[in-house]
């Protein structure tokens, strides 16, 4: 009765809260500040996708919100997910909730995996942004600063070249130019140059610098026309660079959106080797592209280049084709012919108006970021659609999306939190949550508890990791808990700090029926009583085995069914808590969980737990310094 009433109450509250909270965002007990985006993932041919994680940088707006000049907290920035849409790393706390761009895994620096990204500039001018390379521990290894005379680190490209010694970045510079090219030699207009630099990653030294001012006349632009009036600074964005890449021979390709052209550029002296597309194409072409993005060398030799591009085919001003596509183009620089050798159309037959990316995976699969709403797809080399996914929320996009292999081993220990619920000594229960932001290869968690601050940790159970956060439920009042991360070889790869469990500030108010408040149990006693009765609730799959363990007797059907019910109820409560957050709700949920357990555990006639006299903390030993295993 108590339970159903409270549940009804919670449910009502839940609906009210739902309107104020975005259900398309995840939340976690262990990282309460993080609100990670949920994905909708669709597999068409699961077995044929390449291994790897997804790397992307959700943003809701490029400029921060007025008047706070801040972004929505913990929803934007660099994120890693696995191919089921499960969160692996929330990087927003690392960058104080700034927008981040071009976030990718790089496996070509040395034998260690790395990540690179562009960290956005601050509107108040306190930071111009930078290119950052972090290591497998998410520690910054290199920071490439923006050049002094530039406004910011351009958000389009931070392309760390093989070996990791240098990186390419796009640049925007503004300056007045004579309009002679438009037959108006007496006039001057400001224009923005689309250029690029190759920078030494360690020293920031400029190794190569190229400006469209010096090479691309005004009349190639489809934005700035002969009839347009001159502009003051910053001026007409006549070229608009959005990608740069380099081949082994040392030459570059760039994509200029407002000339609809891809340029081959000599690495020796910067002269234009060839123009592909646009008004002055050097090639015989039987196809068109426009407003392209993300040009890459796929392969290259002295006579032929295979390049990939995102052919947006449209922008804010209109579209030239009906479907955006990823194009693979063979460019023959002897016969001066360009042919499409592969076209991957956007699976939903729509247009990518902003941004987008095309990545060729090691197994030749094609991974395409279509940008808006995080829409992305993976294709077999023959173009077959293997996977499509997008954000559950409509409020976010990502400029580019990448897939790649990565090993994340955070230096921070796993995060643990625990809460104690119950109405009597018989049903008192501790729920433990654990997560490890950024760790890629945890397959299982071991849980420990100890009675005193200097006591011996007692193993109280384990749970498979099947989601970012794992919940573990154990009988009794566990005052100090901790968790160990286990990899596929059974090796301990991380150990949390010892965490004291949260308890209600007023036990009576959350349904405690005892005369006096409960006292912490001794995990060694509880563990022996509990042998085989531990419960985990981190996945739907484990529900059966969990119930089996809880029931502790396969043939005892009623106990089995009952245990399953409890587990489900707890799991539901857990989900509600996750979705809502907030202390009030949490306490209310505690009430419910207590109620459910109360009913069931009575029926099971479980062995009674002995209360344990709590021994006060010893002086002089800060809790954080005590690790379960040194
Ligand atoms: C360059 O690559 C093309 C294929 O793209 C190939 O047909 C040609 O033989 C290659 N040339 C050299 C010199 O390797
Ligand atoms: C496609 O990409 C461009 C990048 O230049 C993007 O800004 C544009 O809005 C998208 N649609 C385009 C280009 O037409
Ligand atoms: C776009 O689709 C319409 C109707 O399906 C068709 O008539 C038109 O020719 C297409 N445009 C292009 C550029 O393919
Ligand atoms: C399991 O259930 C069976 C039948 O209900 C009973 O005979 C047996 O004693 C039970 N075993 C335990 C360990 O409770």
Automatic annotation (TrEMBL):
<dbReference type="Pfam" id="PF14269">
    <property type="entry name" value="Arylsulfotran_2"/>
</dbReference>
<keyword id="KW-0732">Signal</keyword>
<dbReference type="InterPro" id="IPR053143">
    <property type="entry name" value="Arylsulfate_ST"/>
</dbReference>
<feature type="transmembrane region" description="Helical">
    <location>
        <begin position="580"/>
        <end position="601"/>
    </location>
</feature>
<protein>
    <recommendedName>
        <fullName>ASST-domain-containing protein</fullName>
    </recommendedName>
</protein>
<keyword id="KW-1133">Transmembrane helix</keyword>
<feature type="signal peptide">
    <location>
        <begin position="1"/>
        <end position="18"/>
    </location>
</feature>
<keyword id="KW-0812">Transmembrane</keyword>
<keyword id="KW-0472">Membrane</keyword>
<dbReference type="InterPro" id="IPR039535">
    <property type="entry name" value="ASST-like"/>
</dbReference>
């Amino acid at each position: 009765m108590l339970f159903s009433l409270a549940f009804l109450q919670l449910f009502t509250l839940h609906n009210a809260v739902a309107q104020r909270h975005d259900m398309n965002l995840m939340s976690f007990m262990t990282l309460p500040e993080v609100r990670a985006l949920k994905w909708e993932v669709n597999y068409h041919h699961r077995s044929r996708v390449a291994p790897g994680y997804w790397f992307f940088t959700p943003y809701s707006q490029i400029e921060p919100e007025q008047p706070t000049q801040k972004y929505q907290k913990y929803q934007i920035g660099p994120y890693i997910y696995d191919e089921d849409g499960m969160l692996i790393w929330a990087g927003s706390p690392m960058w104080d909730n700034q927008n981040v761009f071009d976030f990718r895994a790089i496996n070509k620096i040395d034998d260690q995996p790395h990540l690179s990204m562009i960290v956005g500039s601050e509107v108040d001018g306190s930071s111009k942004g930078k290119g950052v390379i972090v290591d497998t521990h998410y520690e910054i290894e290199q920071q490439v600063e923006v050049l002094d005379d530039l406004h910011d680190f351009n958000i389009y490209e931070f392309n760390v070249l093989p070996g990791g010694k240098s990186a390419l970045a796009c640049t925007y510079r503004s300056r007045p130019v004579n309009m002679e090219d438009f037959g108006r030699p007496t006039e001057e207009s400001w224009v923005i140059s689309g250029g690029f630099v190759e920078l030494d990653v360690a020293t920031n030294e400029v190794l190569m610098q190229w400006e469209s001012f010096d090479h691309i006349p005004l009349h190639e632009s489809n934005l700035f026309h002969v009839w347009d009036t001159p502009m003051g600074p910053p001026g007409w964005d006549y070229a608009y660079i959005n990608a740069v890449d380099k081949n082994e021979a040392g030459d570059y390709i760039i994509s200029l959106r407002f000339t609809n052209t891809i340029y081959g550029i000599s690495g020796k002296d910067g002269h234009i080797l060839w123009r592909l597309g646009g008004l002055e194409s050097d090639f015989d072409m039987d196809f068109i592209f426009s407003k392209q993005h993300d040009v890459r060398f796929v392969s290259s030799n002295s006579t032929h280049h295979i390049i990939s591009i995102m052919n947006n085919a449209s922008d804010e001003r209109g579209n030239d084709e009906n479907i955006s596509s990823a194009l693979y183009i063979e460019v023959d620089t002897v016969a001066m012919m360009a042919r499409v050798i592969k076209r991957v159309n956007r699976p939903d037959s729509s247009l990518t108006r902003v941004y987008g990316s095309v990545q060729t995976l090691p197994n030749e699969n094609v991974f395409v970021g279509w940008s808006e709403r995080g829409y992305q797809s993976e294709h077999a080399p023959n173009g077959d659609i293997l996977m499509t996914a997008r954000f559950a929320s409509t409020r976010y996009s990502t400029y580019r999306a990448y897939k790649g292999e990565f090993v994340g081993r955070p230096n921070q220990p796993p995060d643990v939190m625990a809460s104690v619920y119950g109405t009597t000594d018989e049903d008192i229960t501790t729920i433990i949550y654990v997560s490890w932001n950024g760790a890629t290869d945890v397959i299982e968690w071991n849980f420990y508890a100890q009675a005193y601050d200097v006591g011996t940790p007692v193993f109280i159970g384990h749970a498979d990791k099947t989601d970012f956060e794992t919940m573990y439920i154990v009988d009794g009042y566990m005052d100090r808990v901790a968790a160990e991360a286990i990899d596929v070889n059974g090796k301990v790869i991380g150990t949390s700090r010892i965490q004291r469990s949260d308890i209600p500030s007023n036990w009576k108010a959350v349904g405690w029926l005892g005369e006096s408040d409960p006292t912490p149990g001794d995990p060694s006693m509880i563990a022996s009583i509990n042998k085989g009765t531990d419960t985990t609730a981190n996945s739907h799959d484990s529900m059966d085995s969990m119930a089996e363990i809880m029931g502790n007797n396969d043939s005892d059907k009623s106990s089995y069914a009952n245990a399953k019910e409890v587990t489900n109820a707890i799991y539901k409560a857990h989900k509600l808590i996750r979705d809502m957050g907030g202390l009030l709700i949490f306490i209310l949920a505690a009430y419910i969980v207590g109620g459910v357990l109360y009913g069931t555990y009575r029926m099971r006639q479980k062995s009674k737990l002995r209360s344990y006299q709590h021994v006060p903390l010893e002086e002089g030993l800060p809790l954080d310094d005590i690790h379960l295993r040194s």
